[in-house]
């Protein structure tokens, strides 16, 4: 406690704040990468005007609330007011579209990664570049706005991601980490910057529009991990810490996407390693030894925070529908007069899945709250289906909802392992689902037929990973790579639990995924015949 108190006073700390899909979290760590204090703020996306979005004011409120809670914990536990921090980093959901005018005003509400509204733009750009441009990517959102002839486009002065926006607010610097940048526009592996010929192709594509900007002029500058990307300004202090106890001038590392912080938090930045981040969406990041043989619309090509190529399989839907069912069970328990806390509720219900039939008893579910790019659906309808012969019980119900959370991911991962023979030694998983021991890990191992490890640090998540990137900026040795920094300094003594796939579970999941593929016609019919407001 005394060592931590001294570290806080002297600023021998690093702070990571991540704006995730359901929670904004702040994590303060010491020079040994241990968590000193944390804070969080719950938020949810909303469907407004046909777009999934988060309110701009809520971004600031959430940022301040998470920081304030962390700051109060510091004061309560150590008896000191937080006045300085050694380094800070911000991360957030990758992709999406935040466009600003020359006065810094947001031109249209934030369009998140969850929107499946850019299909025409993504297809056109993929064809133009010979490089897969997913619907989530910022450039797809920008080009779709151009195709739609949206009136704000000529007024654009700056386009960035959510992490880039927060970093800009607090530093005044229009910066982005290379990992987050790789979800904005394709990155040239040789230069670790936006691909120059593709920039030229895009400018030529829209030249006839006569816009007063060129693409490179409106995008943030790209930084590698370990570089300094600005300092906390006086106005930035007022935004982050309205009490203004914090001193300005603190160095900030490049802002990163949640995919990058997931790789860092699981020590998955070396080749042949991979990690899976589970939350509202689910994505797998596999660091490649060589380029893929062709373009796959289901596979994003992005980078690690240090610029290495990564194959990313990103499914828009994962835990949201499972969480909705958990809320229903919570309502039931409260109505029966024995309210259960969330931890116990998740533990009891998830563990029921271990008692289920290997394939989930013939049940079928799609947790599609939004469209799903991997299965080609522009909209989603959460759906649960069973036949008269299905074995409908609680255990099978829970296993089915865990299996379906990984259904779209499985389809994308099969492309890498079967079509491209990508070698994966093991997968490291993180996210709230793995706070309940064994269950989620076992289901994921069955889905991918690969050993799955969960580290003791898994619950810390992306905010902790962002704090590590901030610490790397200030604590790296001369010429020390991010890979070596993580392996030799951060994770050398970190324990992890590896679970190999169970043969019966693997066979059960294969039976389930066959049912899942065949049943996609049902999901498409639901989208076609059930409108978003619930009316037929």
Automatic annotation (TrEMBL):
Organism: Xylanibacillus composti
Top-rank taxon, per record: Bacteria
Transferase keyword on record: yes
UniProt name for this protein: ATPase
Residues of the Carbohydrate kinase FGGY C-terminal domain: 275-473
Organism lineage string: Bacteria, Bacillati, Bacillota, Bacilli, Bacillales
Family: Belongs to the FGGY kinase family.
UniProt cross-references to InterPro entries, sorted A to Z: ATPase_NBD, FGGY_C, FGGY_Carb_Kinase, FGGY_N
Domain Carbohydrate kinase FGGY N-terminal: from-to ranges: 15-235
Gene: araB_1
SUPFAM superfamilies in alphabetical order: Actin-like ATPase domain
GO biological process, one term: carbohydrate metabolic process
Annotated GO MF terms: kinase activity
Keyword list, A-Z: Kinase, Transferase
